[in-house]
Specification:
14 helices; Rossmann fold; alpha/beta
């Protein structure tokens, strides 16, 4: 059975369960189950390669212990085990605090996860379907990676304003222009489900990763933060699918909650690639983390101020920003002045309003800048919808070949 058919049949089983209400819950449910299966498949591979390897998950809660046998526990027994034993154990897992401790990844994923399913029989059917996917089989994993992106697209239609993913063509274009290399620290301060990270991984592996040391350097230099629980869990799973051994660098936090001056020299990075949430307003008190002249409740503007601070001298950034940030006044004027004094804002690419449809119809711009020298000349490009097409849509999205 193809991976796509398997995932479809899993979603159909979940639709019969009275506890799972709508796409967002179904995707959240799918995600923690996939996460446990992926971790277990990886564990089994690591155990064969390294005699001293221990799984981050206690033996009793490993996928193979309770899920792998198709005739295993089911019905009320399965539900009781998941709700009363599995979830409390993984939420409360003890970590060492050392870098590379995979237990922290498990705990962070389960911190706010929830089992929505009410039928143990349907749960057993789902578990048995998931058992059909071998995540150590590279072809199956790549197929699943593509389907996972489709699942993330499904989530967009279930999401609220500001929770849409950046179209893959846009992330690929931004990554291509920034040209990241293994070992350069790369940060997405509002990483969502990990679109920029996966794009950067794909880009570097195609061009620069020639030996295992390149891969290790690349993985060690990634940084990311996501504020919301579901995108965070999806991002961590996404990283595992893309061959990241320790996705612990994806923190579940609000980047803006840390005081502006708390970001020190040691926190500076070579590259920022991000599409910060816009149209949103930050909760009370967040703007007081910023200097008086940058204070605003507008999320995108606060992120812009922070990104300028976060770049090392010579560091480069590609950022998606709404028209409001470019053409507004007051704090926005001071921010633009700061950006252009501290950085060389060399290119702005204007996108059509329909790029983010149907989730938002808003004028957006891609800003490319380098820290360390003031701006002298800015190249403005306007990207137009291809001839014969009125606008971009779900069925006719923007494509990379439209952007060279």
């Amino acid at each position: 059975m193809s991976v796509r058919t398997t995932v479809k049949s899993i979603q159909n089983i979940m639709r019969q369960d009275t506890g799972v209400d709508g796409d967002a819950q179904r995707i959240s449910q799918l995600c923690w189950m996939f996460f446990l299966k992926i971790i277990d498949d990886q564990d089994q591979e690591m155990e064969m390669m390294h005699a001293d390897y221990t799984s981050p998950i206690p033996t009793r809660f490993q996928w193979r212990a309770w899920a792998a046998d198709p005739e295993g526990i089911t019905g009320e027994d399965l539900l009781t085990f998941i709700n009363n034993d599995l979830f409390p154990a993984l939420k409360g897992i003890q970590t060492t605090g050392q870098p590379g401790d995979r237990r922290r990844v498990v705990r962070d994923v389960f911190e706010d996860a929830y089992n929505y399913m009410k039928s143990g029989q349907l749960m057993r059917q789902v578990v048995n379907k998931i058992n059909d996917i071998d995540f150590n089989d590279l072809t199956a994993r790549q197929h699943f990676g593509d389907i996972y992106e489709q699942i993330l697209n499904d989530l967009q239609s279930a999401g609220n304003a500001g929770e849409y993913c950046t179209p893959r063509a846009v992330t690929a274009f931004m990554v291509d222009r920034i040209d990241p290399k293994p070992g350069e620290s790369l940060f997405d301060p509002a990483c969502g489900t990990g679109g920029f990270l996966t794009c950067a991984l794909r880009y570097m592996r195609q061009r620069y990763v020639k030996q295992p040391s390149d891969e290790r350097k690349m993985q060690a230099a990634l940084r990311a933060v996501e504020k919301k629980q579901l995108p965070h869990m999806l991002c961590v799973t996404n990283m595992l699918l893309h061959g990241i051994e320790d996705p612990g660098f994806v923190h579940h936090d609000n980047t803006l909650a840390r005081p502006y001056i708390g970001w020190e020299r040691k926190d500076r990075v070579d590259i920022v690639l991000t599409n910060p949430p816009f149209g949103g307003k930050e909760e009370d008190g967040i703007e007081s983390n910023f200097p008086q002249h940058f204070r605003t409740k507008e999320t995108a503007d606060l992120f812009l101020a922070l990104i300028v601070r976060l770049l090392k001298p010579g560091g480069r950034a590609a950022v998606v920003l709404p028209d409001g940030s470019l053409f507004g006044e007051g704090v926005k004027t001071r921010l633009k002045q700061h950006l252009m004094e501290e950085c060389n804002l060399h290119t702005i690419v204007r996108l059509p309003n329909s790029v983010f449809k149907p989730h938002a119809s808003i004028g957006t711009n891609l800003l490319f800048f380098e820290k360390g020298e003031p701006t002298r000349d800015i190249w403005f490009y306007e990207h137009l919808v291809p001839e014969g097409q009125k606008a971009y849509s779900m069925t006719k999205p923007i494509r990379l070949e439209y952007l060279p």
